[in-house]
């Protein structure tokens, strides 16, 4: 049995020994730092809207957009983290460096929320609330976006570095990798659970500065634990920046757009050894022109000959790319339909940590006589649904499915489809619940104004009525997140796995940004002169149920598009290559 890996090295740069590196121990050390990142980021996100409304005195829609912009930027910066990891730093250093940014940002946020000079004076019963100044908001946003930078760098590399600890060519370790994706999400959901329960409770009872300070210390400890595994990790070899490679193929194909392509006649360039080559496919044939060899591709055409060594030494990567490189770009293009149709789910998810929390602020949250659930902790049902779904799937569904069907459960595309359907149903339930809440608000003749004091009046309706929408969207997230993670990592080329992870995380980013965009547009279109449209400054004067209904319609259209894309992909994969014409 070969215990040395050809595509991974140990910390000294020698071929990695399977017996001494990688496996579940290494993966667990990596997961520890992700738990702390998730705890701090989600601990901030799920309760940030209450801080912006109650303490900083911002309107409802603006507060929701501030949260989604923060989360969107966090995930968009994953592309930057992925680029640095692939081009310069590697995943190990990228995780260590950006984890330090995460610890710094949460530490600064603890200070910013402690100093009274960085927040407006509290509201009095006989005066209007003063909105936070630009300086106060600027300091708050500076801390948040340092945290976003740390989050982006971490998330782009953690899942990929964890997957690197398993060998895809080993059947036993390949099976372990399938379990890793589910357990990875289970671990980070545990971090979210700690965030929406313990951390949010500490924010409400002890103060936000204490909670954020603890997050900063926890991240420092996690960095120490992560570094302790340096000798046990497997480090995959870097192949350079995949972004540059993609651009090179596109530029080379564009330059040769007038070259006549003759299947079976045209000579194609290849620089990979036989085991690493990807065979040419007939899809997206216009890109194949980037691999056609011509004399003009030589740096010195006068010395051109048919020697393949000279081609590899003298060629310009911006004029001639290998067949394998072209096929890698094609593989990335094939990911785009799934990428595009999963963005909307994260727009729906954004409502669970923004408007659903705002709903909880107005509702009865008492348990017994002395305890009141913090509004941000209402999302515990969202996280609980995720954890229960993952546990049941991991311990019951996967073993049963493997015994009966011979496979380890639903494939990644089936998971995504299930998640999209459940999220659409979740929006229907959310619309019905919000309609009921508005009926109660009108029955008690609530006369809230835009002042933040009145917006905190409690309606005689229990917060537990929100549970169904949290359960549906949480279960959907469990399927979609693991399905996306598996799909983008396993369906991408070896040298572009970090980029594909960033591509996956960009769907979350764009989903949050799309939420901000839709909220702004809906507010403008339906706002009216008094700002009491669908998304009024006070949700008791708005029609949030209509907004949820609108998201349901978009979800069904998106689900139909996803099914169409999968059917098209399957049809293409089943079609004989000889029947395709370029």
From TrEMBL:
InterPro entries in the record: MFS_trans_sf, POT_fam, PTR2_symporter_CS
Keywords assigned: Membrane, Transmembrane, Transmembrane helix
Principal cellular location given in the protein's record: membrane
Membrane-topology annotation of the record: Multi-pass membrane protein
Entry's transmembrane regions: 39-58, 64-85, 92-115, 135-154, 184-203, 209-229, 335-353, 373-393, 413-433, 461-482, 503-527, 547-568
GO CC term, one of those recorded: membrane
Compartment(s) of residence: Membrane
SUPFAM superfamilies (alphabetical): MFS general substrate transporter (SSF103473)
Membership in a protein family: Belongs to the major facilitator superfamily. Proton-dependent oligopeptide transporter (POT/PTR) (TC 2.A.17) family.
Protein name (Swiss-Prot/TrEMBL): Uncharacterized protein
Lineage: Eukaryota, Viridiplantae, Streptophyta, Embryophyta, Tracheophyta
């Amino acid at each position: 049995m070969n215990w040395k890996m050809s595509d991974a090295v140990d910390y000294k740069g020698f071929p990695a020994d399977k017996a001494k590196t990688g496996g579940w121990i290494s993966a667990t050390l990596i997961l520890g730092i992700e738990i702390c990142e998730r705890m701090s980021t989600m601990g901030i996100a799920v309760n940030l809207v209450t801080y912006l409304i109650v303490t900083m005195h911002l309107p409802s829609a603006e507060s929701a957009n501030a949260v989604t912009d923060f989360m969107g930027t966090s995930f968009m910066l994953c592309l930057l983290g992925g680029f640095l990891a692939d081009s310069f730093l590697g995943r190990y250093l990228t995780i260590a460096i950006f984890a330090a940014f995460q610890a710094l940002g949460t530490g600064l946020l603890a200070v910013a929320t402690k100093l009274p000079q960085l927040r407006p004076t509290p509201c009095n019963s006989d005066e209007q609330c003063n909105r936070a100044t630009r300086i106060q908001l600027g300091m708050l946003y500076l801390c948040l976006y340092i945290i976003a930078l740390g989050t982006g760098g971490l998330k782009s590399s953690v899942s990929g570095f964890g997957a690197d600890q398993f060998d895809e060519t080993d059947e036993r370790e390949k099976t372990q990798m399938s379990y890793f994706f589910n357990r990875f999400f289970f671990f980070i959901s545990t971090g979210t659970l700690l965030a929406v329960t313990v951390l949010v409770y500490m924010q409400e009872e002890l103060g936000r500065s204490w909670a954020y300070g603890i997050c900063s210390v926890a991240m420092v400890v996690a960095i120490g634990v992560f570094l302790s595994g340096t000798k046990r990790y497997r480090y995959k070899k870097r192949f350079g920046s995949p972004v540059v490679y993609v651009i090179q193929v596109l530029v080379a194909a564009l330059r040769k757009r007038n070259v006549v392509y003759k299947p079976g006649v045209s000579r194609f360039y290849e620089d990979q050894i036989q085991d690493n080559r990807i065979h040419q496919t007939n899809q997206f044939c216009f890109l194949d022109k980037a691999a056609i060899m011509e004399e003009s591709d030589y740096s010195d055409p006068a010395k051109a000959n048919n020697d393949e060594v000279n081609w590899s030494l003298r060629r310009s990567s911006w004029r001639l790319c290998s067949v394998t490189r072209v096929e890698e770009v094609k593989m990335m293009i094939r990911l785009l339909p799934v990428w595009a149709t999963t963005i909307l789910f994260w727009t729906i998810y954004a409502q669970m940590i923004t408007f659903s929390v705002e709903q909880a602020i107005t509702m009865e949250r008492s348990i017994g006589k002395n305890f009141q659930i913090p509004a941000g902790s209402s999302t515990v049902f969202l996280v609980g649904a995720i954890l229960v779904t993952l546990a049941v799937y991991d311990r019951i569904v996967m073993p049963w499915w493997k015994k009966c069907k011979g496979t380890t459960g639903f494939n990644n595309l089936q998971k995504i489809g299930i998640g999209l359907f459940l999220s659409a149903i979740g929006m229907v339930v959310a619309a019905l619940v919000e309609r009921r809440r508005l009926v109660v608000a009108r029955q008690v003749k609530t006369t809230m104004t835009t002042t933040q004091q009145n917006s905190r009046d409690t309606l005689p309706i229990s917060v537990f009525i929100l549970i169904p929408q949290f359960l549906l969207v949480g279960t959907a997230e469990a399927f979609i997140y693991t399905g996306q993670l598996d799909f983008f990592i396993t369906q991408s080329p070896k040298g572009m796995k970090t980029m594909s992870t960033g591509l996956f995380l960009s769907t979350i980013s764009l989903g949050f940004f799309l939420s901000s965009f839709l909220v702004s547009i809906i507010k403008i279109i339906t706002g009216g002169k008094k700002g009491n449209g669908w998304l009024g400054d006070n949700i008791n004067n708005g029609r949030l149920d209509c907004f949820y209904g609108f998201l349901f319609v978009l979800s069904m259209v998106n689900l139909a598009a996803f099914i169409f894309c999968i059917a098209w992909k399957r049809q293409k994969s089943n079609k004989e290559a000889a029947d395709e014409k370029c």
